[in-house]
Hints:
By secondary structure, this protein is mostly helical. It contains 7 helices and no strands. Helix 3 runs parallel beside helix 7 (176-201) and helix 5 runs antiparallel to helix 7 (176-201). The longest helix has 35 residues, at 44-78. The relative contact order is 0.10.
Amino acid sequence: MSQHIAMPSKPSDSSSPHPREASSGASDVTGPIQPGRERPAWLKPLYWLDDNLEKVVILISYSGMAGIIFVEVIRRFFFNLQAPWSTSIPVLLFLWLTWFGASLNVKQRTHLSLNEIRMRLPYVGQFLCQVLDAVLWIGFGVMVIHFTSAQVELAWMNFAIVPGTDNVMQWWFYLATPLAWTLIILRVLQNLWQDISRFRRREPFNLQPSIMD
């Protein structure tokens, strides 16, 4: 008669998690981040404008300036010709380039802001500096919009023509300043909302932005 020897069962480790729990925990750490809800199709053009508006204006104005100057230099030196408006249009296009470039820098936080000092402040001090930034930007922007809008209105009422042209109005170019500063205020409010959200989550502020973003 054969003797049956019962092998002792391996004690279960009570500290090891349940397989479902283990797999669930692993997925939380190493699993892919679930994408958020897809943006509605009718909002995609607005998001594209929000991302690229300043870049498009800068590209058009800079290309116009460079193209006019390049062509007119060639015409002047090789053909002894020059359009009478070639010295005035590029200067006015520079308004669009400058102010919308300022808006892009505000959006990307690449303007001068003394970040070396802010980084040495405590967390609450950094947040208060961000709020002070927004207040100063908005206050200065309101003043700029008020006075430059009066300049645009004056040029429009007097039918001011760009020198060297017959029907190109000056207010078309002067309009760049109030429009760009309105966009600057919008970018400031967007950044302020991001800062408030980070402050609530106790996340670090973006005090070292990259100019190449």
